[in-house]
Structures are given as structure tokens and as C-alpha cells.
Amino acid sequence: MPEPKPTPDANEEQRPRTRRRRAVAPSAAALQIERVPALREPVIVCAFAGWNDAAESATGAVKHLIERFHAPRFAGIDPEEFYVFTETRPTIKLVEGTQRELSWPANDFHYFRNSRSSRDLVLMAGREPALNWHSFTAAILELAGKVNARALVLLGGLLADVPHSRPVRVTGTTTNPEIFAQWPDLGVRRSRYEGPTGIVGVLSDACRGAGMPTASIWANVPHYINVSPNPKTLVALVRYVDQLFDLDLDLVELDNASARFERQVAEAVDQNPDVRRYVRMLEEQGEQADDEPVERPSGDLPSGAAIVEELEEFLRQRHQQDDDDDEDDDDE
User: Fold this and answer.
1) Are 132 and 150 spatial neighbours (Cβ–Cβ below 8 Å)?
2) Is the entire prediction scored with pTM above 0.85?
3) Range of the domain at 181
4) Are 144 and 165 found together in one domain?
5) Do the Cβ atoms of 285 and 291 come closer than 8 Å?
6) Which of 1-15, 22-36, 210-224 has the lowest mean pLDDT?
């Protein structure tokens, strides 16, 4: 009969068990590649709808590049294991007025061969996943390996206490400045953010762990005009990508849309003296050194929520008026 093992004394200190983090690989069906294009030292430019994409600044910028370059799709990530479809629902639309077409949350990869540079681009405008973030980032890193990507650039949009009347404040960072020859000339302010993060922060961390150089560029969106899309912050991110990769883009159309949007916001602000005072306070704060923000007075200024509600209602009315005017022009 085997001798019973002694029971540890209740007062005896127990050694804590250490949990080892296992490497996570994407499921076999997660990454779906139609073909692997021949690319020269490509850089992947990503943006994700959701928490990282205030006013659709980042995804709007990448989608503009995809449309501008007529960039072909060559791969995607199957959404099945990454989303709760009762929260992020598929959509349907009518095709030719009769047939219904179903679309699932997409994370598609497109490519662009840049004749002005020795580096081509892979463009992805996706959606932040709800589940299995480790597997999701592993799928993107697998794609990076398939195309032999040299680096990954992440675009984002964040709500901030910045005035609409000033140039867009852009923050970010890069792990390897030598990879991006134009980075020092961009004037991107180094981000000092600490706190909760989204898929952009998780993917950046995964890239560092895999030895993949990364850069992140964030447009600061005025929190009191969180109307989507925001043409001013969108074109700011497009311009930074243009400069970073020498794309020589014609941005006149985007600049005109930005100027028109800014005039509408200025008109909305002028309707409310309290909002004008609040914006002026943000302007004065921005003129101070980064380490010396102007303290917000309490009590006599309208709340951020009240400002957002008033301005969004005004801009919705203006947007509807513009649509009605366009329809009238079409009828003439």
C-alpha cells in the first residue's frame, strides 16, 4: 500500500504558481489570402474603426488612400471569431434595386505600388475587434510576414481639449526613426498618454515583441465637435502619410471640404456666447507650454456635453440643408 503524501500545514507558506503566457497563433481560417503581391519593402498602414477612431479620422484617411489609388484587395481577416454580431452587426444593401447584398465587418488588406519611392504600401481600414485580440494581432503579423513588410504605421483619432480654430494637433511616436527618413520633418509631437488603450496600442506592443518597427500618428479631434466624419482631421492624417511616403497627392478636394466644414463649425460657435468663450479658453491654453495647461474655470462655462449637443444639432441641420440644396440642384 503506497504511503500517503503529507498534507501541508495550513500555516505553511505556499509558493505561488507562475502562469506562463503562451504564444498565440491565429486560427487556420482567420487570415484569408487570395494572393501575395510582389511588393518592394512594403509598409503596412492601418486604421481601426471604434475606440481608436474619433470622428472617423483614421479610417477615413486610409479609405481615401485606397479609393485614390484604386488599391486592389488581396487579403482579409475572417470576422467570425473576433466580433459579437449582436453588437457589431452585418449590414445589407440593395444592389440594382432588387438584390440584397450582405456585408460582414471587414478587415481587408489592399496594396499600392509607389512609383515615387522604393517602398510600396499595404493599406488596411478595419474595425477594432471585440474578442481574441491576441489572435487578431497575430493574424496581422502573419500577413506582415507573408508580404515581408518592413514596418507598420498605425493611424488614430482621439478626442482632446483642442480648439477647432487652430491647425490640427498631431501626436505620435515611432520605435525606429531611422526606418522613416521623413519622420523628423513631420513635426509629430511625442505622445505622453497613459491609460486605457485600444487595438492600436495592443498591436503596437505585439509588433515590438516581434521586432517589427512601428509608428503611430494620432489626430487630436476637438471633443466638442465629435461629428463624423471630420474632414479637417481626416485630411491632416492623409497629409502626414503623403509626406511620410512621398506620395505627391493632390489634396485640393479634401482641403476644400475641410475649409467648408470649419466655416460651418465657426458659424455654429458664433451662435452661442458661452461656446465662444469656451473655445477662446482652449485657444489660450494651446498658446501655453505643453507642461503648463490653463486651468479650466468651473461653474460659469457650459459643460462639454452641452456644447457637443448644441453644435452637433446645428451641424446636422446644416448638413440636411446642404443635402436639400443638392437635391434641388439635381431637379433643375
Assistant:
1) no
2) no
3) 31-249
4) yes
5) no
6) 1-15
Q: What cell numbers appear for 175 in the block?
A: 520605435
Q: Is residue 317 part of a domain?
A: yes
Domains held by the chain: number: 2
Domain boundary among 249, 273, 307: 249
Distance CA(220)–CA(31), nearest Å, equals: 32
Domain end residue (candidates: 219, 249, 279): 249
CB within 8 Å of 261: residues ≥ 6 apart = 230, 231, 232
Q: Which of 146, 138, 121, 105 is nearest to 46 (CA)?
A: 121
Contacts of 212 (CB under 8 A, 6+ apart): 141, 144, 149, 151, 152
Q: Are residues 119 and 41 in contact, defined by beta-carbon separation less than 8 angstroms?
A: yes
Which amino acid does the sequence have at 94?
Answer: L
The answer to whether residues 57 and 156 belong to one domain is yes
φ/ψ of residue 89, rounded to 5: -85, 150
**Counting Cβ atoms within 10 Å, is residue 320 exposed (0-12), middle (13-18) or buried (19+)?**
exposed
Q: Is 243 in contact with 236 (CB distance < 8 Å)?
A: no
| Shared domain check, 189 and 49 | yes
pLDDT in tens, 260-305: 999 988 988 888 888 888 899 999 888 775 543 333 333 444 455 5
Task: Assess if residue 199 is contained within a domain.
Answer: yes
Report whether 275 contacts 307 (CB < 8 A).
Answer: yes
In a domain, 139, yes or no: yes
